[in-house]
Amino acid sequence: MSLAEFAPKMSRRRRSNPPKTSFKENLKAFKNLPKFFRLIWETNKTLTFTNIVLRLLASGLPLAMLYVGKMIMDIIVVLYKAGNIQHWHQTPELWQWILVELGLAVLADLLKRGITLLDALLGDLFNNETSIKLMEQAARLDLPQFEDSEFYDKLERARRQTTTRVVLLSLILSQAQGIITMLFLGAGLMFFNPWLILLLVISVIPAFLSETYFNRSKYSLSLNWTPERRELDYLRYVGASDETAKEVKIFGLSDFLTSRFKLLAYEYYYANRKLATRRAMWGGLFNALGSVGYYVAYALIVFQTVQGTLSIGTLTFLAGSFNRLRELTQKILSDFSSIAQQALYLQDLFDFFEIKPLIFSPDQSRPIPKKILEGFVFENVSFKYPNTNKWAVKNISFTLKAGEKLALVGENGAGKTTLIKLLTRLYDPTEGHILLDGYDLKEYDLTALRQLIGVIFQDYVKFQMNVSENIAIGKIDERDEPPKIVHAAEQSLADKVIEKLPDGYGQMLGRRFANGVELSGGEWQKIALSRAYMRDAQLIVLDEPTSALDARAEYEVFQRFAALTQGKSAVLISHRFSTVRMADRIMVLKQGQQVELGSHEELLAQDGYYAELFNLQAKGYR
Ligand SMILES: Nc1ncnc2c1ncn2[C@@H]1O[C@H](COP(=O)(O)OP(=O)(O)OP(=O)(O)O)[C@@H](O)[C@H]1O
Question: How far from 170 is each of 118, 123, 497, CA to CA, in Å?
Answer without folding.
Answer: 10, 8, 53
